[in-house]
Automatic annotation (TrEMBL):
Sequence ranges assigned to domain Jacalin-type lectin in this UniProt record: 366-461
UniProt similarity note: Belongs to the jacalin lectin family.
Key words, A-Z: Lectin
Presence of the UniProt keyword Transmembrane in the record: no
Name this polypeptide is given: (rape) hypothetical protein
Top-level lineage group: Eukaryota
NCBIfam families: F_box_assoc_1 (TIGR01640)
Gene3D superfamilies: 1.20.1280.50, Jacalin-like lectin domain
One GO MF term attached to the UniProt entry: carbohydrate binding
Listed Pfam families: F-box (PF00646), FBA_1 (PF07734), Jacalin (PF01419)
UniProt cross-references to InterPro entries, sorted A to Z: F-box-assoc_dom_typ1, F-box-assoc_interact_dom, F-box-like_dom_sf, F-box_dom, Jacalin-like_lectin_dom, Jacalin-like_lectin_dom_sf, SCF_F-box_component
SMART domains (UniProt xref): FBOX, Jacalin
């Protein structure tokens, strides 16, 4: 038993040293590694810290924060959102490793860490999109979309399972509380939470919607000052707890509170809060207090630092980094345009949910360009699979005439489409073993044609 325990620790140590972008591939080695790489403790200790995802008029990107620099790294993300223009209404939501875009034509559910997305067409409901959660009483996460609207003292709620056009409607009395900032919603253990206010005492609290019992009710009180003019933002801490940011409307100073223990579904009366940090905003800072443009933020456990993403007084998006008594302000110069949307994203290996009304993916890459004898071109995208089983490359007198890939998906072989002209062409096939994969593609070309392609496999090193 002692040797088994030591081996488990050794495996964890080895896997923690694998480059982060390659870790996802190792989950399919065995059930033991898959369990470890999805373990919350392993993710917290070894995966990348949280990051910000931003959508501006000029680009969609993620921002990594380096607290040691301090510095930031901006990474482009694909930004092809079907039938969407930047000034249209769209909401973003984070749900335990997944990022949701809600537009007038449907929902985009993606994992930016794995660079995968699934667009789901949906009939519109009569409610605003609020967030996504799931019924935690069931063994598998059946994700559900939540929408809501208010009419006097009645809160109308619509829910639908991802991929379904069947909306279920509810009515809840809200005479004792009022939902505020419904667009700033978090999802934890399948349940949705957001900030509300108790009408009688004008006291802020956390409201919850539990998909398992279909209940909308107050969960727990909030700490801090009882001043509703202050800006408050609810976030996730350590992936299993709450944190709350309160920014004073007058001084711009910030308080951070966190829950002492992990958050559990059900009754929140036993929730205890601890003050985590006080931030004195320097006079020179351009940070603003804006109830309509609330900051996104996260706490870095290793450095006990704080990272915020919000606009400054000039309307430009900035990253603010607080570590000890140091306060840094970094403007993201790559972003252009009005109304940048942003949220905090925690990297995860969680797979995308499937749906009956899936639309074409616009997030997959790399994309290919069909060979068309040097005249015109068409992008192609075969989709996502576990691995490539066979590559077929057609040759003509002028160069590469077509490419075709066969894939494996859940041990089944999927025959890919021919991209290019496959008539009266000689071709070569490359078979790939189950334990091998493509590491790089090289080629040569002239002004009109791709003249050769070379696929470098891992086992050929």
């Amino acid at each position: 038993m002692q040797q088994e325990h030591l081996l488990w620790e050794l495996e964890e140590s080895i896997l923690s040293r694998i480059p982060l972008k390659s870790v996802a591939r190792f989950r399919s080695v065995c059930k033991r590694w898959n369990t470890l790489l999805n373990d919350l403790k392993f993710i917290n200790n070894h995966l990348a810290r949280p990051q910000f995802v931003l959508i501006s008029e000029s680009k969609t990107c993620s921002v990594d924060v380096n607290f040691d620099g301090p510095s930031i790294e901006v990474h482009d993300l694909p930004s092809d959102i079907p039938n969407y223009e930047h000034r249209m209404v769209m909401r973003m939501h984070y749900c335990e490793g997944l990022l949701i875009y809600a537009t007038s034509t449907g929902f985009g559910i993606c994992n930016p860490w794995l660079r995968r997305i699934r667009w789901i067409k949906s009939k519109p409901s009569f409610c605003w999109f609020i967030g996504m959660g799931y019924d935690y009483s069931k063994p598998d996460n059946h994700y559900k979309i939540f929408g809501s609207r208010m009419n006097y003292d009645t809160r109308y709620v619509n829910t639908t399972e991802v991929g379904s056009n069947a909306w279920k409607s509810y009515e809840f009395s809200s005479h004792s509380w009022s939902m505020i900032c419904s667009s700033y919603t978090i999802s934890l253990n399948g349940t949705l939470y957001w900030i509300a206010v108790k009408k009688s005492a004008r006291q802020p609290l956390i409201l919850s919607f539990d998909f398992s019992i279909e209940s909308l009710k107050p969960y727990c009180n909030l700490p801090g000052k009882n001043d509703l003019s202050n800006v408050r933002v609810l976030e996730i801490y350590r992936r299993d707890r709450f944190s709350i940011l309160e920014q004073d409307w007058n001084t711009r100073n910030i308080e951070i509170w966190v829950t002492k223990d992990t958050i559990k579904n059900g009754d929140g009366e036993s929730v205890e809060w601890m003050k985590f940090m006080n931030v004195l905003v320097p006079i020179w800072s351009n940070i603003v207090v804006d109830d309509l443009e609330r900051p996104s933020y996260f706490i870095d456990e290793k450095s006990n630092g704080l990272a915020l993403c919000c606009i400054n007084k000039n309307g430009n998006t900035c990253i603010y980094i607080v570590k000890g008594d140091k306060f840094h302000e970094i403007e993201i110069n790559e972003l252009v345009g009005f109304g940048t949307r942003h949220l905090t994203y925690y990297p995860s290996f969680v797979p995308l949910p499937t749906g009956a009304n899936d639309a074409k993916s616009h997030f997959a890459f790399p994309r290919g360009v069909e060979a068309t004898n040097g005249v015109g071109e068409n992008e192609w995208d075969d989709g996502f699979f576990d691995n490539v089983k066979k590559i077929s490359v057609g040759q003509s007198d002028t160069g590469v005439a077509f490419v075709k890939f066969d894939y494996s998906n859940n041990k089944a072989v999927v025959i890919g489409a021919v991209h290019g002209n496959a008539t009266h062409i000689t071709y070569d096939d490359v078979l790939i073993d189950d334990d091998d994969y493509i590491e790089a593609v090289e080629g040569t070309y002239n002004d009109n044609y791709i003249t050769s392609l070379t696929f470098r496999l891992h086992k050929e090193k």
